[in-house]
């Protein structure tokens, strides 16, 4: 286990994520929602137990933006109300104890995490190289 420090762009919120060194749950997502919310070509996401994430500053001030995911259930995105950095997401379809951490926001960890799968490959930009097995939408469960 390694503990990574994270903070939003303005520094108003800070957190610690204690992550398994096994990165099989590290997923690169090409979906259009990630493009719109993040402003980049994709997002990098580690699926973790909720208990692995602790806010050390400003956790109470986070705001949630919710939208309906493909499952029909809500996806709640927790972000800093000042600078809009997304710390983590919670997909209700995954149950109450599992969250999705944005690993590219971790200053020390972002380079350490390689994707184990790419999802929403059908929305991938044509110029992007494949770095892990790509699924059209989601991997079969
Ligand atoms: Zn902030
Ligand atoms: Zn996505």
TrEMBL record:
GO molecular function, one term: metal ion binding
Domain CENP-V/GFA: 4-128
Record key words, sorted: Lyase, Metal-binding, Zinc
PANTHER family membership: DUF636 DOMAIN PROTEIN (AFU_ORTHOLOGUE AFUA_1G03180) (PTHR33337:SF30), GFA DOMAIN-CONTAINING PROTEIN (PTHR33337)
Family, similarity comment: Belongs to the Gfa family.
Stated name of the protein: CENP-V/GFA domain-containing protein
